[in-house]
Amino acid sequence: MVYFISGPEIIFIFFIFLLVFGADKIPGLARTLAKGMTQVRQATNEIKTELQKSVDDNLENPTQSVTKDIKQEVGNISKEFKDIEDSVKRDFTKQNSS
Predict the structure, then answer these.
(1) What share of the chain is helix, strand, coil (3-state, %, to 5)?
(2) What is the C-alpha end-to-end distance of the chain, expressed in Å?
(3) Do 94 and 87 touch, CB atoms closer than 8 A?
(4) Residue 39 DSSP code
(5) Which residues contact 65 (CB under 8 A, 6 or more apart)?
(6) pLDDT per position as a tens digit, 37-57
(7) Rg of the Cα atoms in the chain
(8) Are the beta carbons of 16 and 8 closer than 8 angstroms?
(9) What is the spatial distance between Cα 46 and Cα 40, in angstroms, rounded to a whole number?
(10) Could you tell me the pLDDT band of residue 34, with boundaries at 50, 70 and 90?
(11) 46-81 as b/e, with b when 16 or more CB fall inside 10 Å?
């Protein structure tokens, strides 16, 4: 079922709006509503742009992020091995000097 507001219904809604808010406040409300809608549209476009940039960056160089992650993990493992190696060397020198 399609919901559609016909001409007489729009006029009735406008009449109720006129009674509730008054003729002098309706232009201000319309401006405020338009500014709000513009801000929402701009925010939506910014989000779309950021998402598109992110997707484009990942599509252009998909191996770059994987390579970066692998290098970081290798660096972490190398550091851990270096720490273990230093610990073993200290223990070995302590045993030999005693």
Answers:
(1) 90, 0, 10
(2) 91
(3) no
(4) H
(5) 58
(6) 999 999 999 999 988 887 777
(7) 33
(8) no
(9) 10
(10) very high
(11) eeeeeeeeeeeeeeeeeeeeeeeeeeeeeeeeeeee
